[in-house]
Design goal:
The chain is α+β, with helices and mostly antiparallel strands. A hairpin with a 5-residue loop joins strand 17 and strand 18.
Length: about 625
């Protein structure tokens, strides 16, 4: 290979910022394709190329079969020639043979050139795509090359071209050919000819990179950008905080006499930028985010999912807080991540008064606010006539609103505590089961599932605390209510039974071990004693004391009564009166005492029997 050709290729690769390894692979692929074209070699035949990029020398090694007599020189080699390469080779083996031609024909050379160019282009595209993919959300600069239907074509590094669509261009800005512009890489799309690099000047990352370039404190990490909200070409809000005590983050971004922020405004074609200090307290942060409007109060709603905040402002600040076409409120909501509901003092006071009038519980909790209700009505009536509030009236209404909101917050806290207490009474397993397990008719299930309960436990929690939320829904009548009540009762009973069973299963092994320990003999000696003890001899059965009393009563009873009682009892009566006699007891006439006594045989420790007298 001509060394001048290799040098020319090296210059091309360096100009296109392609590494030398790519050149070596491209030459190998080109020479391999040229050899196949020249020798009409099969694609199944193994061909290896060795290239010295510095000298331009190369070798082509071709896989051939070892035979005694060569019929096809392109695929076969004689045994004696093969053994000069590898002495241990045998007939039928394959071996790589140096088959480098002295020169290639015109067609083969053209093929090599095309393959080399194709490999270089593919490597260049891959490198471009990888480079700009790593630059996503980073700011780059380029030169405007052309204006197309999609937007502006921008010349970039590595001989790449980017596209700035009209949708990613600041409204109203125009560029001329050869203008140098800055933008951020928004997206890189792989395509056949070249990667499609989409640029943007409207993304909030563009404003972030401009701030990093103009404010050294942000670049070094002393000042941190917390969030950005932007409407390109019109207005932007940036929340910043300081990581160094005593440093004003807003002043660092604005600069002396606004020099730093003015440079950014010029780059954004006059886009207004509000820089505010970020605060961890959402009420303070939301109030600052609505600047330049002055906020009277901010009240956070307890729903963590919706993240709603109610902002109260004076009547003259209402339009400023909302902004033109709601722009200021929209940007503040994007900046803080909260849904912001802006109300005037009069509107907020009217709602607070209505809430206080409807809720007796709130009036009991807030006696001071209840006393101010007539004054609030009077001020609101005056405002309805004049559409104006004095400063003193605004202060009075603001205090009234604040008392009501604090009372509502206390009621919500109490309700949350009650909900937690009630939740503890519901079996935990029900909070892992879906609402679909509720055994109710399909139409009833469709009605109650509109409220998006997360589990059966949440539904039963609402059922216990606020059943009206379920039973007052349209379509829930007495029959549906009965089916819901029966399904809830069945679920609670089933869950309670399952918990009892699990507890018994846990306690059974320990109780069994304890019982075995208690029933085991205290010692081997006690066991032996128990085994050797003789059995008691059965004693004569003595008549019952009650029978003796009956005999004595019969002897002194009148004759007619004796005859009546002498009647034969029925079998049932005899069965009821018959009692089991106690063993070991008998009656005996004591001559010394001159009367009949009852005696009982007992057993001593030495296995002897003795008689014990019973005084009856």
């Amino acid at each position: 290979m001509n060394k001048d050709i290799v040098l020319a290729l090296k210059e091309i690769m360096a100009e296109r910022q392609v590494p030398p390894e790519v050149l070596r692979k491209a030459l190998e692929a080109g020479l391999k394709a040229a050899y196949r074209k020249e020798m009409n070699a099969s694609q199944a035949q193994d061909i290896q190329v060795e290239v010295n990029v510095d000298t331009g020398e190369y070798r082509i090694l071709v896989e051939k079969e070892v035979v005694e007599e060569v019929q096809n020189p392109g695929t076969e080699v004689a045994l004696n020639e093969a053994r000069q390469i590898d002495p241990e080779v045998e007939l039928g083996d394959t071996i790589l043979v140096d088959s480098t031609p002295d020169s290639f024909g015109r067609v083969a050379a053209q093929t090599a050139r095309q393959v080399i160019q194709q490999n270089i282009r593919e490597a260049e595209r891959e490198l471009q795509a990888a480079h700009f993919r790593s630059q996503i959300s980073e700011m780059i600069s380029g030169v405007v090359q052309a204006r197309t239907r999609q937007g502006y074509t921008i010349g970039l590094d590595m001989h790449a071209e980017g596209l700035l669509p009209d949708s990613q261009k600041i409204p109203g800005e125009r560029f001329e050919i050869h203008d140098r512009i800055r933008a951020v890489v928004l997206e890189v799309k792989p395509e056949k000819r070249a990667p499609r690099i989409i640029l943007s000047r409207t993304h909030k990352s563009f404003l972030r990179r401009l701030l990093e370039n103009e404010v050294p404190e942000i670049y070094r990490g002393i000042v941190e950008i917390r969030s950005i909200a932007r409407e390109p070409g019109r207005r932007a809000k940036v929340a910043v905080s300081s990581n160094q005590p005593g440093l004003d983050p807003v002043g660092a971004c604005v600069g002396v006499r606004g020099v730093r922020v003015q440079a950014i405004v010029d780059e954004l074609r006059g886009e207004k930028i509000d820089i505010i200090e970020w605060k961890p307290d959402p009420t303070v942060f939301i109030a600052k985010a609505l600047s330049p409007a002055a906020v009277t109060a901010v009240y956070i709603q307890p729903d963590a999912e919706k993240r709603t905040a109610t902002v109260v402002v004076a009547d003259e600040q209402l339009s400023l807080a909302i902004g033109r076409s709601g722009q200021n409120a929209r940007l503040a909501a994007k900046l803080t991540g909260w849904r912001i509901d802006i109300k005037s003092i009069a509107e907020a006071a009217t709602e607070s008064l209505a809430l206080l009038e409807e809720s007796e519980e709130l009036q009991t909790l807030l006696p001071a606010a209840a006393e101010e209700m007539p004054l609030a009505r009077e001020i609101l009536a005056s405002y309805a006539e004049s559409q104006h509030l004095t400063l003193e009236q605004q202060v009075k209404l603001a205090q009234f609103i604040d008392r009501v909101e604090q009372g509502r917050a206390r009621l919500r806290e109490e309700a949350a505590k009650k909900r937690e207490a009630e939740r503890a009474n519901i079996p935990a397993s029900l909070f892992d089961r879906p609402l679909a397990d509720l055994d109710v008719p399909e139409y009833v299930f469709n009605i109650i599932s509109e409220d998006d309960y997360n589990s059966l436990g949440d539904f039963i929690l609402t059922y216990n605390l606020a059943p009206e939320k379920i039973f007052d829904k349209p379509g829930i009548g007495p029959k549906a209510q009965a089916s819901i009540e029966a399904a809830v009762a069945s679920l609670l009973a089933e869950a309670a039974s399952a918990e009892e069973t699990s507890q018994m299963e846990e306690e059974t092994p320990a109780a069994a071990a304890e019982t075995e320990a208690m029933e085991a003999p205290a010692s081997a000696e006690e066991a032996n004693t128990a085994e050797s003890a003789p059995e008691e001899e059965p004693a004569e059965e003595a008549p019952e004391i009650e029978d003796l009393f009956k005999q004595f009563a019969a002897s002194i009873a009148p004759q007619d009564q004796q005859e009546e009682e002498a009647a034969v009892p029925t079998p049932d009566e005899a069965r009821k009166k018959k009692k089991k006699k106690k063993k070991g007891e008998y009656l005996e006439f004591d001559e010394e005492l001159g009367r009949t006594v009852k005696r009982r045989k007992r057993k001593r420790a030495n296995d002897d029997f003795f008689e014990d007298e019973i005084d009856w």
